[in-house]
Structure prediction request, 183 residues.
Amino acid sequence: MKLDYVTIEKRDGIAVVRFDRKANLNAFNEKLVVELTVAARGFLDDLETHAVILTGAPNAFSAGFDLKATDSWPSESDELKRRYRAYGGVRLCKAWEAMPQITIAAMEKLAVGAGVAIALACDWRVFGAQRLPVRSGGQNRLEPAVGRLAASYHAGRAGARKTHHHHVREDARRPSARMGIDR
Prediction:
């Protein structure tokens, strides 16, 4: 499959997967979802690559799903086709979670919705030097990663805004503790 939005560079056992739509703050559309899913599945049998770094465009990791992109979708009368389209993001995240390599989301500037979800499907998340505004998305993946209280606070659920950092579970603040690595 020809990849228009995704590039893959491999060197010395490390791959960099970069996605860039060059528009709409790198928001996901159906084609990008398919391309990133294909890219992830391409690593399943690749035992030469030990780590995969996922990164977005220079101006934003991703502004979520491009809602304008749905305007071009044909009206599906077939329930199976509608369901298949609706679960594209789930397949994308599962493909990244299934990779045997260590996966790292290198995030710069902005991450929203689908961008947060795919980052949470990776093993590690690294934020750039600039403050990264991370907004809602991927709540079902966020809770296992940082704990329910921290996820609730992060997503700004009602009543959770008053939660202070010291109330967040210790293992939610220290990923090394959650992974059994004591530093």
Confidence is low (pLDDT under 50) at residues 149-183.
